[in-house]
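Quick question, first post here. What does this chain look like in 3D?
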Amino acid sequence: MEDIDIWQKKFEVCDYSKKLIDRIKYLNTIVDSPIDITEIEKGLYYTRKYHASQMRQSGEPYYSHPIEVAIMLADFTAPEAPKLYKSYMINVALLHDAIEDTICTHADISKIFDKNIADSVERLTRIKPYGKISSGEIIQNKKIN
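> Answer (accepted):
Ran it through. Tokens below.
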């Protein structure tokens, strides 16, 4: 694994990342406890890194999905549940498919972020007894059953 302190030098804002960052900046103006944008950028960097080669059926990069989930979570928590409007929660949303669909592991997330984020991501992960499960396999299994 690369030196985890290098991510800031490599971080690039794409249209999807910009949408989340801009939304967090706006929501930070309406809450008592603003989120640290740098922590969100870190989550964005690793979300894009781990999902870089994956594409959605629409042709969009797969990482657009966890970014949209993070936006929805931020939009809900800031006004409705401000105690949950935390960088921790946004990063869990960003990383929610990382263990399931990429080479990323619980240990990787623990090292890069912390054990609490890794544990939360793991609780959101669907793992088969003999390996990771893909969304395509889930859909195929539902069609069969």
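The chain has one domain: 12-144.
The longest strand covers residues 127-128.
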